[in-house]
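[09:14] KT: can someone run the structure on this one? pasting the chain below
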Amino acid sequence: MDTILEVKNLSKHYNSFSLKKVNLTIPKGSIVGLIGENGAGKTTTIKAIIGAIQKDGGEITLFGLPFHTTNKEVMQQIAIVMEGSFFHEELSPRQMAKVLKGLYKKWNDVTFNRYLRQFNVPATKKLKEFSKGMRMKLSIAIALSYDAKLLILDEPTSGLDPVVRNEILNIFQDFIIDEERAILLSSHITTDLEKIADYITFIHNGEVILNDMKDDLIYKYGVVKCSEQQFDSLDQTHIIGYEKGQFAVQALVNNKQAVQHMYPDLVIDAPTIDDIMLYYVRGDKK
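[09:31] RB: done, structure tokens below
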């Protein structure tokens, strides 16, 4: 499997929080979804990968070579979309394009203007007049306009309406269709990841607790719905977490097929990514 980005044992320590040996692989032609609750370490991981903060340990390789932000040729291959902007508030998208044309060898004005029209981003309006959603659409248009091989996106669809979100997700899928590009997409909108992600990496308290193909996760895990008496009779080794209601219990199991075989009368539904995250983070455990 050819990889574009590989992260090994990435660590970053603060007084109240630490990334603990995060491992992450992004194969060519794939979209990797990075999930976790607020404060779990998603943004810290991305900032450490791109050099926005200094890591305390670990190795990062891009196209099989050590990744350094000082390597200008390497930085031409990466597009980063994060909240906030490094542009002056008085600049318009048209003025930004003139600056970017001098920074990126493969900058394409035609592509940039096409995305501005597609996203309904005004080319002559100043950045200070843009809403949060408009700024994000502009950032995505920039990221897609200089032939980068890797998109690193932190909450790129946050604040966008469902129609625009769906449009952008389709664009992301088209971006990787040649099997030479890839995307790392951090998002709390897990339905977006259910639609387009190939792999899911789940960070909790600074540690990776799940790293698997999305379809395998949905296939392997299951949500059991049963009475409290039925729940008490279950093999607890398969239970990740559970919630007890007034009349029933719902539990996440890590081997749906095995549990169904042992208890053929149980109702076991396919989980959402939200279900998996919820029961790992908030579900009670025996």
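[09:33] KT: thanks! The two ends are 38 Å apart (CA to CA).
[09:34] RB: yep, looked fine to me
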